[in-house]
Amino acid sequence: MDKALKYRIVAWVVAIFFLILLPSAVSVPSQLQTTAIVSGIGIDKEGEEISLSAQILIPQPSTSYSPKSTVISGTGKDLMDAISAVELKTGQNLGLAHCYIIVLGDEICNDNLIETLDFLMRSNIMGNNTALIHTSKKAEDILKVSSQFSESDINNLQNIAKFNKENYNSASTSLIELFSEYALPASASVIGTIDSDESSNGQSSGGSEESSGSGGESSAQSGGSSSGSSTSAFKNEGKAIVIKNGKKILNLEQEDVMKFNWLDSETQKGNILIENYSDKDLQNATIGIRQMAKRICFNPKITNNTPILEANITLETRIESIENGGKIQSSHKNYYNDTLVSAIKTKVNQDIQDALSLAKEYNFDIMDIYAIFNSNKTADWKKYLSSLDNEDNYIQNLEIVVNVVVKNKE
Question: Are 122 and 64 in contact (CB under 8 A)?
């Protein structure tokens, strides 16, 4: 067979291949026509049903990444039904593979979250590392505020959750972490709270405006011309909720979260405020100190059937501000001395004891007490648990001894 005949046979095979497959390829709709790309979902309770709100990305023709988004809601007896209701409204399947955030309304947290979220955990429609946040209002409202923000900052909710985790509080929990912690003997988790706030402006003109406010708030304004407009903003005040056995048992204020954070190795940064401080140079001063890094190690032991946790904490700190008698002191002078170090140690120790008292009052463990003792003192810990009338009350007899080393990093 000569080469020319071979080439003709190959050409005919390729032509027949295209004639067979090309019509079907042309007629198949694009994925954007059949799938709605969801970047976040909100879950609320509507009577006896569940309401699911989906933040859906709307691709825009642009040379840069600048998608818009809209929020569409649906209700059902469970999440599967609610998702189907949203899909009926959009005429598309919900694509949850890129869903980065799940917002939980306050009312739904009073039910068993494990049962509610079980469908998302067991199905293959989304990743298990999706972050969870709580809101004291409706989850749908939080997603709507998020959709008003900068088109290039579509991940603003996830950014806030990550910032909390790395800098100030550990109230950042993923879907898989919630289920993993539920399966542990302590069965407790902490989820950060983000709320929305609306304030009225005098006037507004057409278009869309965005601004960043102080105090942990970011705002987004939109709408046409009107004599009065409302500006929606995120309120990230460092609050959180405690989940035990799948249900919310307690709201934590920011100062409560900060107190628990002293025993959390993942939280590295924060602020320390020393009030009514006096030494040879200052009288009734307020000193603001920046915590730049933290190292912590535990030494658990059980003495006379009492669990005692020795927490050794090393802090790297720097004075940021000094207010002395209404006057702002310049911080170039080194005010670090034994008196200030003692004041810092006293505050840290008191915060930890306050956190322990709160944990005992509501009988929850978000400090990994069970895991610390069980992994380091397994036999003694099991013996201690067996001596209790109710093993779930193991934290009631806990004592924490705090040793703090303060380093000046100015």
Answer: no
Residue 18 covered by a domain: no
**Residue with structure tokens 């859906």?**
56
User: Taking a C-beta distance cutoff of 8 angstroms, is the pair 234, 217 a contact?
Assistant: yes
pTM summary value: 0.79
Of the candidates 93, 103, 52, the residue with the CA atom closest to the CA atom of residue 75: 52
Q: What DSSP string runs through 103-170?
A: EEETGGGGS-HHHHHHHHHHSSSS-TT-EEEEESS-HHHHHHHHHHS-TT-TTHHHHHHHHIIIII--
Q: What is the pLDDT of residue 156?
A: 65
Any domain includes 325:
yes
Into how many domains does the chain fold?
A: 2
Q: How far apart are CA 187 and CA 214, in angstroms?
A: 36
- If one compares 239 and 217, the residue with the highest pLDDT of the two is 239
The residue range of the domain holding 388 is 265-410
Helices (H), 214-337: 254-261
Answer with the one of 240, 261, 282 that is the final residue of a domain: 261
The separation between CA 347 and the C-alpha centre of its own chain, rounded to angstroms, equals: 26
**Does some domain include residue 5?**
no
Local structure of residue 325 (DSSP, 8 states)? T
For residue 177, the SS3 value is helix
Q: What is the pLDDT of residues 175-186, one digit of tens each?
A: 999 999 999 999
What are the angstrom distances between the C-alpha of 102 and each of 39, 47, 117, 157, 402?
9, 20, 10, 10, 36
Same domain, 302 and 350: yes
The interaxial angle of helices 369-376 and 378-386, nearest 10 deg, is 120
